[in-house]
Design a protein that fits this description.
The chain has 21 helices and 22 strands. The protein is of the alpha/beta class. Strands 13-14-16-17-18-19-20-21 form an 8-stranded mixed barrel, surrounded by 4 helices. The chain has a 5-stranded antiparallel sheet with strand order 2-1-5-4-3, with helices on both faces. It has a 5-stranded mixed sheet with strand order 7-8-6-11-12, sandwiched between helices.
Length: 630
């Protein structure tokens, strides 16, 4: 049976209604689920926000940094760290009303804090820097500060975070102090000296006054270190630092460059315009005896001064020129002061030129020897020769020994040069002996540095062995100062040289130490009278008396005595009348190159007589002593 059209229509309508109902139910279910999920999310966001706020609150509460909030010109919140820092307790309730952030800064930093707050009001969001604040106990605290503009409870506010960096600043200051101050004396070092000098020179330029730079070097300080130890030396340096500080004003600079060198920077406006009075005062402070480690020490110093703007306007030049003046004070015998002059710098440049050339003189065969004959007491027979070092530079010409030997002694070149002199002289003497002068004796001067070498005795033995010269024909000449520097060690080394068979002579006798009680302990064979006494024996009673005393001393100790620097008949006759054993000087012969010396030796006695005749003629004609041997 076919369904009726009405029924079919109703069924379709019913199906559509069911479908619409199902869709509505599904949509309602989906919407309900979405609303539920949104509610869940909102609830979780509230929880998260509450937890975040709690975490922030805990962080702020537990933070070691001081955190404060200022609103409407008053601090409205301070965490426990801020309370501990500024009011001495951890309770926010104890925070005093009416305080603002700027009031926490020390007076020196208050302006900086005010500027920072003004910038935040003008639109800046974050400003950071380092400041100082005053703690609850009055202590000044170094802090790293960050200020942040933000809204707090609906109002424009500023949050400040202050971290205590006092320990870091203390370490930085310690490092800075170590970098700019001498560890021993706590005086400014070279770095800070330059800064202070630059500042004083800049001020002097603006105001038209002078600045003095004083270079001080303690005389023979090395002896204190070597003999008494570095501990005593350090105590001496501290005392010197104190005395220099006492001799200067509070605005002057006392610096230590290192070792025993000090520099003063003194604006003359702080003192009498006459630098000599100031320098005398400084030296008077230093020369006073010092009580150190149970000892009384006397110390002297060599002092040099340069002046701005008279001597230089360059910082490095001022210190260098003061150093040059100090070196001149050393040359003048120490324990004095000198003001810089242009002539000093010229001499220093000459010294540097000579010293530079000296380093290659030996390698370039520029050094050579002259030999001055030595006669017996009668003045008739040559008994020996003294080897004398000479230097001819291709550009500087002949350089006198007094100009280069002290330099070689200072820089240590005297050791290889002295070794070359000894070897060359021994080989030359041996050659002359083999040529017909078998009893010729050779005298060679020794330097203190050469003698101090640990292997010196072995090196002398090697030279004798290599040259073939018998030890009894070699005389080594040592100065009084050399042998008296370390008596016990010197006695041992001289004994070792005597064991080789070498003759030993004290050169320049009478000009050094007067420790004659030690003389009998030295295994020496000869005393050599210094030319300064021989020169004046005819006119100076004191020189004549010294010469007689030395001759008497030599006879009593069974020592041979030789006089150097004999230039006149009167000198020769005086020495002969008083029993001098040997004579040497221009009266008999000038120092000669090796070839001329061999010719001189070849006619020996006749040449000596001829020289005496020439000397008398020269005196009659009024010629100088240089003409005698020419």
């Amino acid at each position: 049976m076919q369904p009726s059209p009405e029924k079919d229509l109703l069924e379709r309508r019913l199906a559509r209604a069911n479908s619409a109902r199902q869709q509505a139910e599904q949509l309602l279910e989906e919407k309900s689920l979405a609303l539920y999920e949104e509610a869940q999310r909102r609830e979780q966001a509230v929880v998260d926000l509450r937890e975040s706020e709690e975490r922030y609150r805990l962080l702020v509460q537990l933070s070691p940094d001081a955190i404060l909030i200022e609103s409407a010109g008053e601090i409205v919140y301070a965490n426990p760290a801020a309370c501990r820092m500024f009011i001495g307790c951890a309770k926010e309730s104890g925070w005093p009303p009416g305080k603002d952030i700027v009031s926490l800064a020390t007076p020196d930093y208050r302006t900086r804090a005010q500027v920072a707050m003004a910038l935040l009001d003008d639109g800046e969001t974050v400003i950071s820097g380092e400041e100082q604040v005053r703690g609850h106990d009055g202590r000044v605290i170094d802090v790293a500060v960050t200020r942040i503009a933000f809204g707090y409870r609906g109002k424009a506010s500023v949050q400040m975070v202050a971290r205590d960096i006092s320990h870091r600043k203390q370490l930085e200051n310690q490092l800075l102090d170590q970098a700019t101050h001498d560890a021993l004396t706590r005086l400014p070092n070279r770095t800070l000296l330059r800064e202070r000098l630059a500042a004083e020179v800049a001020t002097a330029r603006r105001h038209g006054h002078a600045v003095w730079v004083v270079f001080i070097d303690l005389d023979r300080f090395k002896f204190i270190n070597d003999s008494l130890g570095h501990g005593v030396g350090d105590m001496v340096l501290k005392l010197v630092a104190d005395r220099l500080s006492a001799a200067t004003g509070p605005k002057d600079t006392v610096a230590r460059l290192g070792g025993d060198e000090f520099v003063l920077v003194v604006p003359d406006r702080n003192h009498d315009a006459d630098p000599s009075r100031f320098l005398d005062c400084v030296m008077a402070q230093l020369v006073r005896p010092m009580e150190v480690a149970g000892r009384t020490l006397s110390l002297t110093s060599s002092v040099g001064m340069s002046r701005f703007p008279d001597d230089s306007s360059v910082l490095e030049d001022l210190v260098e020129k003061a150093d040059i003046a100090m070196y001149r004070a050393k040359q003048q015998g120490r324990n004095n002061w000198q003001l810089f002059t242009a002539a000093m710098q010229e001499e220093l440049q000459d010294r540097v030129q000579v010293e530079t050339a000296l380093h290659t003189a030996l390698a370039h065969n520029e050094l050579f020897l002259h030999f001055q004959p030595q006669f017996d007491g009668n003045g008739s027979n040559v008994v020996g020769v003294e080897a004398l070092l000479r230097w001819r530079h291709p550009k500087l010409g002949n350089i006198v020994p007094d100009r280069f030997i002290p330099l070689a002694e200072e820089n240590g070149l005297i050791v290889p040069i002295g070794a070359w002199v000894l070897r060359t002289a021994c080989m030359q003497c041996k050659a002359w002996q083999e040529s017909g002068f078998p009893t010729l004796r050779l005298a060679v001067n020794l330097s203190p540095r050469q003698f101090a070498q640990a292997d010196f005795v072995d090196s002398v033995a090697a030279v004798l062995r290599d040259s073939g010269l018998a030890a009894r024909w070699l005389t080594l000449e040592l100065t009084e100062n050399l042998v008296m520097a370390d008596v016990e060690a010197t006695i041992v080394k001289l004994g070792e040289l005597k064991a080789l068979g070498i003759q030993l002579s004290i050169d320049d006798f009478g000009t050094g130490y007067s420790g004659l009680s030690y003389l009998k302990r030295f295994p020496i064979d000869e005393l050599k009278i210094d030319r300064s006494f021989v020169r004046d024996i005819a006119a100076d009673g004191e020189s004549a008396a010294i010469v007689r005393t030395i001759l008497s001393l030599g006879r009593n100790l069974n020592l041979r005595v030789i006089a150097e620097g004999v230039e006149t008949v009167e000198q020769m006759e005086y020495l002969q009348d008083n029993g001098c054993d040997e004579l040497q000087g221009y009266f008999f012969s000038r120092p000669l190159p090796a070839l001329e010396c061999r010719s001189f030796l070849g006619v020996g006695e006749l040449t000596a007589q001829h020289a005496a005749d020439l000397a008398r003629r020269a005196m009659d004609l009024g010629l100088d002593a240089e003409a005698i041997g020419s």
